[in-house]
Amino acid sequence: MTISGRTRLIAHLGYPTESFKAPMIYNPYFDKHGIDAVVVPMGCKAENYAAFLKLVFKLSNIHGALVTMPHKVTTIALLDEVMTTASGAAILTAPVTRTSDRDRSACARKIFDSRSSAV
Fold first, then answer.
1. What are the structural domains of the chain?
2. Radius of gyration of the chain from Cα atoms?
3. Higher pLDDT, 109 or 31
4. Cβ neighbours of 4 (radius 10 Å)
5. Which of 32, 80, 111, 114 shows a CA-CA span of 20 to 30 A to 25?
């Protein structure tokens, strides 16, 4: 896997990060299928999370985020848009996707679809 300036980043947000399994699942899949994306664990403590979530989505190459404990419940209130299918996100790993240059939305669909173009 080669990471370049065109690689789409998917932040895996939570704390602590030592138990995160998503990068070990998604990154080999992306590599095998030639998808230029990478899941990156990012440890963020609860007291810094609201500010950090806003900043991470200012990155031009962020594609989305997987949000896990302790931030699942907090995330819904921080989003610009919450789809009705995300109402159960507090009990799931909540996917947060970039839908434009400025907003963050949560939904219960796949965070990454290799058949669609980058958001």
1. 8-106 (3.40.50.10860)
2. 13
3. 31
4. 7
5. 80
Distance of alpha carbon 41 from alpha carbon 65, whole angstroms: 10
Terminal C-alpha separation, the chain: 21
What b/e sequence results for 53-74 when a residue is b if at least 16 CB atoms lie within 10 Å of its CB, and e otherwise?
beebbeeeebbbbbbbeebbee
Least-confidence region, from 17-31, 48-62, 68-82: 68-82
CB distance 81 to 102 below 8 Å: no
Parallel, antiparallel or unpaired: strands 94-98 and 8-14: unpaired
> Which residues are 13's β-sheet partners?
42, 67
Q: Say if residue 28 is preceded by a cis peptide, omega within 30 of 0.
A: no
The amino acid at residue 42 is: M
Residue with tokens 């990156």: 40
Instruction: Name the residue type at position 24.
Output: M
